[in-house]
Amino acid sequence: MITKLPIIIDYKNQNGLKSFDKSYKSYNEGKLINHNFKITKSKNKIILDIINPYKPLKFVHIPCINNYNCIYYLNVSLPLEITIIENNLVSIYFFILAINSINNSELDFFTCLCNYINNKLNKKYKLLSYENINKYQKKLFNYFNIKNKEYSLEKYKNTDEFLSYFYKRTLLYFNFGLCINFLYPKYTNKSIRQEPIYDLLNKKLLSITNSIKNYNFSYKVSSKYTISQHLKNFNKNIVTNIKNNNIYYLNINKTKSVKFEVKNISNNLITMTNNDIIDTKKYEISYYPKTFIKLLNKKALYNYISTKPELYDIIISKLYGNEISVKYINIFKYINNSIKKELVLKFFTDLNIENNEGYEYKNELYELTILDVNSKKYNDLINKYSDTFENKLEILKILFEYYTFPIQYNKRYLDDIFEKLLYFSFKNYTEIVKLMNGKLYLDTEIIKIIPIKLKTLYFNMLKIYYQMMKENSFESIIFNSKLYNDYIHYKVLKVIINSDNKVKELIMEDAVKYKKIKEIFINNIILIQLCKRLKWKNISRKLNYLDELYNNKEYLFFQERLNKTIIPENFDTRLKKILYNPFEMFRYLRKKKDFIKWVKFLNVRILNLYNNSINVLEKDYAKLGTLIYLLLNVKEQNLKDDSYLLFINHCRENENLILFDTRINLQIREKFKFLKVPINLGFLAKHLTWNNESIIQLSKDVKNKEDNKNKEILQLQDKLDQVSKIAKDYNKKYLKYKDKYLKLKTESSVESQSSFLKSSVNNI
Q1: Residue 760 pLDDT more than 50?
Q2: Is 410 a member of any domain?
Q3: Is residue 235 part of a domain?
Q4: Backbone dihedral region for residue 411 (phi beyond 0: left; psi -120 to 50: alpha; all else: beta)
Q5: Residue 715: pLDDT band by 50, 70, 90 thresholds?
Q6: Number of neighbouring beta carbons within 10 Å of residue 15
Q7: Neighbours of 410 (CB within 10 A)
């Protein structure tokens, strides 16, 4: 029987497929296709193998559709053997499939397989369901023993068989270890002895089961617990015993929960890591957020743990021993397309088996690609071949050759090769990076061998390290936009700083510099986020954001210009002006209360408004705000103008805020270039100090002269006042008599007109 079944072609053998699309050559990319499979059925077995005219495939990725994580990709070894147990299809992947292949979907590999076989053979085959595992447990463990013997690593003939047996055996123990924990939640070594399946279990399976049972992991952003502890927490999801350093959730309402970590608890009061305090009597506290309430069940939990790659490392260590487990773990990663074939070359050579795929080990230097960077042998090998630049170049050439990607798939750790590459490069940075004409360059020999896609990332990392160690400068990490705008750069630097790795250890040899570089990186990320959220329309509500930007001006400005690393391209021009000069904000204010608020917000920064430093108290902020408000509303610098007089009077009442030794202390021209009316500071000082001059002791002659001048001025002033008084009196009298004259004239004209009319009437 031949049919098309869905597979994922993101595997290392993808270019061996007839249907392979050359546009999908990327190491981490792929697509879902339907490919031909040959199905062979015997009495109680079904054998599946892919039909490929070019070369046989050893492994293939298949899609499994479920209700929890939608799609899960399972790597299977070909040919795939399925055993039929009472119309149930059972394989070494039975437990994973029971919780990951449950929907009747056209994209699900086993759904398509069952539908085809049932239609073709008129059968009612189905996958062994999650609910029926308990029913068939004895038959399942009989099946385990058969397969365990079949996949013994003592039987392989060549590397292909070794890989197949090793992978199948690992998956066999993984599935059955989970199965025992599922069937016996309260499993112990003593309790399992009373069960009927005990005689079907071996010591390694029991050891693996214990390891899975004691494995601590986080579920739905919770603290780390074992499987049994998680299941216990699911019952109520309400915390009764709060522990320090654990993560919990504060339930605000039926749907909203807030995450927090406990620093200390005393008398029902919880102190969080941010030093906030919570009263446990007022709030309900849970292990998991309210939004995940539907996923707090046994099936969802096992679905999640079945996808944890860390468990495979534990199982491999138990199966093969700690000494050789690292090599076996690398082989498992190679099978799952996590690392390249070359990283397991030496191990295949040491096995002394037939290499049917060209698994050939080249020389001792290639051990650099497979040795643990923390091992003594690795450091010995580095030291051995680092005596000349040519040897160092050779080491780099090998590491560059096997480089694929800088970080692991989980984005939490550096890729093994990239970590070794950076570690070795940092150790020899003075020979790799050259300083010419004040600029840093990679050595020309390094440029020749470095992959093009790695060049920018590699150079930026080395540049940071060079400047930090050689020049005690952090300019590259502050002002290099690549580090924050390019995803790979950002992730690599984040992993180096936060996770445990050899590169971080090297930087931490100088604790002060490591602390500084971490502080800069975190601060820049915060500032970038603040700038993205700060808008002109919300500035009144986000003054704390603006305050944080002002407090980090050493990061915000580069060569007296705004740092483009932090400030986005679409940042409002008005906000840019305010960052340059906080006093620009007064340009956009209209109400006096807003002026006062802005002065209060600026706080001590308001001192930058003065030429000479003065003591401005908090109680003076309102007066200063009013002063600036009146200044910006002056219509004309004229003593006859009311707006100017208001300003002058306010300034005279608060001379300390504007004058210093009879001179204007405010930087009016520099800080208020947007004034409606230009202010002459000389005239302003004169108007403020008029009749306010301090008494000066002069010589007698000069004093007499000054006194005489003053007397003359006073006499003239008196005469002027008298004349003005006479003029006022005359003006009053003139107006009085003029008014009388006009009244009399009006009355006489009326009388003459009336007499004229009377005479005219009489004549008629």
Answers
A1: no
A2: no
A3: no
A4: left
A5: low
A6: 13
A7: 8
Domain C-terminal end among 113, 132, 151: 132
Which residue matches tokens 């204007």? Answer: 664
621 and 741 share a domain? no
Residue 16 lies in a domain: yes
Averaged pLDDT, 607-622: 90
User: Under DSSP, is residue 273 helix (H, G, I), strand (E, B) or coil?
Assistant: coil
Whether the bond between 53 and the residue before it is cis, its omega within 30 degrees of 0, is no
Mention every residue, 6+ apart, whose C-beta is less than 8 A from residue 300.
Answer: 68
**Quick one: 33 and 90 in the same domain?**
yes
Average pLDDT on 381-391 reads 84
Distances (CA, A) of 37 to 53, 112, 169, 620: 12, 12, 24, 85
708 shares a domain with 666: no
Answer whether residue 33 shows pLDDT above 70. Answer: yes
Q: Which residues contact 677 (CB under 8 A, 6 or more apart)?
A: 634, 635, 636, 637
Q: Are residues 599 and 620 in the same domain?
A: yes
Cβ partners under 8 Å of residue 11, min gap 6: 30, 59, 60, 61, 75, 337
Residue 722 and residue 620 in one domain:
no
How many domains does the chain fold into?
3
Q: What is the pLDDT confidence band of residue 534, given thresholds at 50, 70 and 90? A: very high
Which of these three, 100, 115, 132, is where a domain ends?
132
Please list, in sequence order, all residues whose beta carbon lies within 8 angstroms of the beta carbon of residue 38, skipping any fewer than 6 positions away: 1, 2, 48, 49, 50, 51
Q: Is the domain of 677 the same as that of 721?
A: no
Q: Is the dihedral of CA 173, 178, 184, 185 positive or negative?
A: positive
Give first-to-last CA distance, the chain, whole Å. 143
Band of pLDDT at residue 754, cut at 50, 70 and 90: very low
Q: What is the pLDDT of residues 39-55, one digit of tens each?
A: 998 888 999 998 876 56
Query: Residue 82: which residues within 8 A CB-CB, separation 6 or more?
Result: 45, 46, 47, 48, 89, 90, 91
Q: Quickly state the pLDDT bin for 749 (edges 50, 70, 90).
A: low
The mean per-residue pLDDT over the stretch 642-666 comes to: 90
Q: What's the full length of the chain, in residues? A: 764
Q: Under DSSP, is residue 48 helix (H, G, I), strand (E, B) or coil? A: strand
One domain, residues 679 and 711: no
Range of the domain at 20: 2-132
Q: Give the residue with greater pLDDT, 241 vs 598.
A: 598
pLDDT at 568: 87
- CA 103 to chain centroid, in Å, comes to 35
Residues 632 and 716 in one domain: no
| Non-local CB neighbours of 324 within 8 Å, separated by 6+ positions | none
| 193 pLDDT tier (thresholds 50, 70, 90) | confident
Interior/surface letters 49-82, b for 16+ CB within 10 angstroms, e for the rest: bbebeeeebbbbbbbbbbebeeebbbbbbbbbbb
The helix, strand and coil proportions of the chain, stated in percent and rounded to the nearest 5, come to 55, 15, 30
Per-position DSSP letters for 178-233, written without gaps between them: HHHHHH-TT--TTGGGGSTTGGG--HHHHHHHHHHHT--EESSS--EE-HHHHHHH
Judged against a pLDDT cut of 80, whether residue 94 lies above it is answered with yes
- Look at residue 672 and tell me whether its pLDDT is greater than 50: yes
Q: What is the mean pLDDT of residues 350-356?
A: 65
Q: pTM of the prediction?
A: 0.57
Residues 6+ apart with CB under 8 A from 654: 620, 623, 624, 627
**pLDDT attached to residue 286:** 87
Please indicate, yes or no, if residue 707 is contained in any of the structural domains.
Answer: yes
